[in-house]
Amino acid sequence: MGVVDIALIVLIVGGAIYLLYRSLWKKKGYCHGCDSSGKCR
Amino acid sequence: MKTQMAAVRPLVAVERTVRIAVAGNPNSGKSTLINSLAGSRLHVGNWPGVTVEKKEAAFERRGERIALVDLPGTYSLSPYTEEEVIARDYLVQERPDVIIDVVDVTNLERNLYLTVQLLELEIPVVVALNIFDEAEKKGYRIDVPAMEQALGVRIVPTVATKGTGLDALLEAATAAAGDPSRYRPRRLHYGDDIEAAAKSLMAEVLRRSPGLAETYPERWLAFKLLEGDRRVIEEVGLSGIEPLAAKAAEHLLSAHGEDVESLMADARYAQAAGLTREVLAKPDVRKVELTEKIDRIALNRFLGIPIFLAAMWLVFKLTFDVSAPFADGLATVTTGPFTRWTRVLVGLVRGPDWLVSLVTDGVIAGVGSVLVFVPVIFAMMFFITFLEGSGYMARAAFVMDRAMHSMGLHGKSFIPMLLGFGCNVPAIYATRTLENPRDKALTALLIPLMSCGARLPVYVLFVGAFFSSRSGTVLWSLYVMGIVLAVLMGILFKRTLFRGESPMFIMELPPYRMPSGRSLMIHTWEKGKHFLLKAGTYILAVSVLVWFLLNLPWGVEHKKDSYMGTIGQAIAPVFKPLGFGTWEAASSLVAGVIAKEIVVGTMGEIYVPEKKETPAGPPSSLSEDLREIGTSFAEAGKKVFTNVFSTAGIASLSGKGEGRENLRAVMAKTYTPLSAYAFMTFVLLYMPCVVAAAAFKHEFGTWKWFGVAFVYQTVLAWSMAFIIYQGGTILGIGG
Questions:
Q1: What number is the ipTM of this complex?
Q2: A20 to B425: CB separation less than 8 angstroms, yes or no
Q3: Quick check: B530 contacting A, CB < 8 Å?
Q4: Is B691's Cβ below 8 Å from some Cβ in A?
């Protein structure tokens, strides 16, 4: 496994964790009672 | 204050903003009217209490920005419920340019009680006589000019669902906003004694604090002080005025034998009743209406609950009948052509082998396993929206009222619980319609037992593998189990954490209506779209992370030895007595804490064969794949008809679907019908997902209630799955 592979893995895992944080915590998720902008509040 | 912006478009060269508050009784069609006017998609339903907080939709018209604020439905402006407080605070503190008062003309007198109170605020009012078509059908005749004269406001007949009269309504509203002094509503006379007391009290108030006239409508303020309205007294903060108001109130009490609040209510009702008598003519012979005929059966003391259970069964059966063939078609496409072509594309950019595996065995297997159930979820949301729009959901709350009383709640608590069938998160937020904190907390604790749409993919997978001939019934049994356990847990909580009597509740039952096609489509989409959003966000993220956990330490030969496998093996013994003590099941359940549909996504990744077999023969061409896709969906269309008209269960769930068939085949080997049912029970009941946890914290400002839900649900899930599996094993059922 080369440096490029490692960099790519760090990028993908970092992106996934950020996506998880953003969608689950920062935006408190989405729900059908939310408005059309997708926010619960 | 919390305001939701629903639809704000880019505005250019706007001359002025007209702020229009849309007020009215619950279920009078406010949100529908706003949606028709602004093209927004506020949540509507034919049951009271859909709008919990005020929401805003804005659009541009003839160089003006029109900002419509959808206030929660209220019967009055007394500050007794959360909805009334939100509506009143907005009207008094924000002083919109004009109020559109949406009046359900089929219940004119009751709606006019609120109208009378809106007039007291001395803000220009335009009355929308909504649902006018139904009133005409019933033979009602309304003297609109006489009504305009009596109230001193513009009145426009409307049918919000069809868009009738809305241009005239908006025209009248903007005209009133442009010239408020001309459109000031008439002051209705509440009797000499009340008027005199209000006048002298106001004179004293203004003498002490002349600036108050700028902040509050004078006459309204005097009425509130006379009524002893605590919120207003505190807001005004005028020292020494309370004894004066109390003295005036005492005088009225001794003169009339009634307290001021009752006197005021009587005076307002008298105005509403008198006006109704003057302007509304009903046909002499009253027909027994369809709603009444249906309700005689649907609300019958003995038949009510069985009919509700039968309606639920029908929803599940139809959901599967129309959606399962499309789910199968999607599975074929996802695991066949889509995976093949993704492999080719990643190969073209010379991606390393691990990247190919991440995309196909991680993302496609994980996200794809969940996405194939999108047709099922949309079908379910369609039928739930239909029930909401038809008015049956309000009946469901009514028939459940007695059961709810047994656990110290009332039928109104069942409304947020019914919302939970779509998604538990908005249901937890909807508990704010309940008046007291005890009801709110207890209802929120029971909501996660309502099976949300996210759990559906898990059920469909297992039902397809083990119970395809009785799929509707098995699925129905899980939902009913959730409701029954909610009642039992409610009784337990009432005797422990939440002692006290349930308050009296009067439920408004709206007439049955056929929901419009447009409204059905919009709200099905609004309910279902968040599953697509989830697929593109946290299901995607978790699929990627699970793939890494299944492949670390790097180069691990067997998934069992991976980090994920190690975690799963550590937890698996806990599930052994429940019949699914494998590391695969344990790992999936842990990942499912993020969102329940991730259970299926994780299984999809775990059960991807570890050693790829070389496909037999040459790879298929693009045209062959496109033909395969076309054939899959054409067959799906045909199966829908076969299913809907067949009486022998769901044929399509036993149909072919390359990848999902594999996953289903693995399930069939790994589980027995009994352990599969125990697993579904565990997924139904175990802890709320992370987003629901955030909703608990957000709504109650503490982790306490989430903590209680976490503990009791986990214990309940384990116990129920244990009883089912061990009980079934002893009885020799489904082993």
A1: 0.80
A2: no
A3: yes
A4: yes
